Amino acid sequence: MAHLPTWNTLPDDLKEVIQRNAAKYVRQQREEQANLNASLCEEFSTRGLIFNEVEAGPFRARLPEVDAKGKEKLGVECWTLLEENVGKLG
To answer: How many whole angstroms separate alpha carbon 44 and alpha carbon 38?
Structure first.
């Protein structure tokens, strides 16, 4: 995320470097977070904590209206970047 007027003043080659590195390190952070979450879940389970698995289907069924609003607010370019990382939405 960036201040749009400032972002628009940057040269295209610099924008490309920023976008490429942001995507790279966001992916890395998500992988690290997923690994940490899995290890903590395992550790806490051995200590007796019970995790409830939630069926995502009913939640996903309600997302199209939320996604439409998000897409409108974020804009096409941002929404496309989001979908590249999490899969097709709405």
So the answer is: 10
Q: Identity (one letter) of the amino acid at 53?
A: E
Which tens digit of pLDDT belongs to each residue from 72-90? 888 888 888 888 877 787 6
Structure tokens at 81: 């970047």
Q: Cα separations (Å) of 87 from 79, 80, 83?
A: 11, 10, 5
Residue 73's CB is within 10 A of a number of other CB atoms, namely: 9
Tokens read off for 83: 């979908």
Domain definitions of the chain by residue range: 12-53, 55-90
Tokens of 21: 């590195």
